[in-house]
Amino acid sequence: MVLECFEVGEGEVATVMLHGFLGTGRNLRTLATSWSAADPKRRFLLPDLTGHGTSPALPPTSDLFTLARDVVDTVRSRGVTGPFDWVGHSLGGRVSLAGSLHVPEAVRSVTLLDITPGPVPGNLSESGMVLGVLLQAPPRAESRRAMRAELTGRGLSEHLADWLLMNLHTEPDGVRWRFDRQALADLHSRVNGTDLWEAVERQGRPPMRCIRGGRAKYVSDADAERMVAAGCPVATLPGAGHFVHVDAAQALLEWLLQG
User: Which end of the chain, N or C, is more open, meaning fewer C-beta atoms within 10 Å of its C-beta?
Assistant: First the structure.
């Protein structure tokens, strides 16, 4: 399946950047633009993952491996023939790990942005909380302002509400969600329960590295120690939360350029 995809840069080193759950490729555009300016040899591809943004809907029983295959199909459709670098935030990182297991010939390296290879406990999943609110919201509203009021009235911050509103489609009679909320809820439970430690600890895997937010809880100290023991370096951005590319953009860029 070929996904909606935005590109930044015209270099020869193909680098796919994958967003988190409920996001779109646009979430990483600022980071890609800064990275491209600092490293012009790279060509960045920012797809909307399957079921997200304006990409095709999720087929039934989709999982991390089907999402990874769709990423590869998309990158191949853009003329990239060899392996490429995978950079993934949250869900995008888990898709990257799945790709290293299922389509290893397409993976040159994996960079994880604040995500663990292990199953994500439900009480640690920020996306799970947001999804719960999203499922309670109406399927349509008269305006973006009205839908924003629905979301904030159910406890979401204005920042999170505005982020979700990027997924609205404008119609003659108002706005409507462009994604299938229930399909995403089903996907969420499957992908968070998947154990991907094999991707990090197996012999012959591609180079991997991880950076975590010091205020986030997705990568525990125990996870970091286990990753380091497996030869996957882990760095920490002390003042950042889960959205490291937003909370510590310059520090993240400097770290990325070291690789």
Answer: C
Sheet with 5-8, strands from edge to edge, namely 5-8, 42-47, 13-18, 84-89, 107-113, 208-213, 234-237
114 phi-psi bin (left φ>0, alpha ψ -120 to 50, beta other): left
15-60: pLDDT as tens digits = 999 999 999 999 999 999 999 999 999 999 999 999 999 999 999 8
| Stretch(es) of the chain classified as CATH 3.40.50.1820 | 5-119+194-257
Residue with tokens 């909370």: 247
Name the residue type at position 179.
Answer: F
CATH class of 5-119+194-257: alpha beta
State pLDDT tens for residues 159-179: 889 989 999 999 999 999 999
Please say whether the beta carbons of 163 and 230 come within 8 A: no
